[in-house]
Amino acid sequence: MKSYRKELWFQTKNRREFINITGEIESSLYESGIKEGLLLCNAMHITASVFINDDESGLLHDFEKWLEKLAPEKPYSQYMHNGFEDNADAHLKRTIMGREVVVAVTDGKLDLGPWEQIFYGEFDGKRRKRVLIKIIGE
User: Fold this and answer.
1) Could you tell me how far CA 131 lies from the centroid of its own chain?
2) From the centroid of its chain, how far is CA 112?
3) Structurally, what CATH architecture does the domain formed by 2-137 represent?
C-alpha cells in the first residue's frame, strides 16, 4: 500500500470565506499516483473547516447567513471564550461545518456525486492556515 501526504496553505482576505479546493485535491491525487484507496482532507486549525457540498453561490451565501444566525460574531462579550481573543463564533461555526472529509478513490479519480465539491471554510481568517491531504491505497 502507498501513502501520500501534502499540505495546502491558505490566507484569506476576509474573516470568513468558502474556497472550492476540489481542483487542488484532484491535482494532489494525480501527483500521488494512487488509483484505488481513500483520500482524507482535513483542516489543521480549530477555526476552519473542510466539507462537501454544491458549488452554488446562493447556497454559499445561505451557509454564511445561517452560520451567523447560529453563532453570531458580535457582540464578542456574549462568549466566555472571548477573553484576549474574539473568535469563539469561529470555533462554533467549524464544529457545525465539520473538520474533514473522506472520499473514495476509484480508478485514479475522486468518487464524488454529480454535484459534490470539496470546500475549505474559513471562519477566523486573515492569517496563514493549512489543510492536510492524506491518501492511502494502491
Assistant:
1) 7
2) 16
3) Sandwich (2.60)
CB under 8 A, 24+ apart: contacts of 65-72: 67/16, 67/93, 67/96, 67/97, 67/123, 70/96, 71/96
Specify the DSSP class assigned to residue 75: -
pTM recorded for the entire structure: 0.96
Cis ω before 72 (30° cut-off from 0): no
Residue with cell 499540505: 7
Domains of the chain, residue spans: 2-137
> Which parts of the chain sit beneath pLDDT 50?
none
| Cα 4 to Cα 39: distance, rounded to the nearest angstrom | 9
User: Within a 10 A sphere around the Cβ of 63, how many other Cβ atoms?
Assistant: 19
Q: For 104-134, how does the pLDDT look when each residue is reduced to its tens digit (9 = 90+)?
A: 999 999 999 999 999 999 999 999 999 999 9
Report how far apart, in Å, the C-alpha atoms of 119 and of each of 4, 17, 39, 95, 103 are. 20, 10, 14, 15, 13
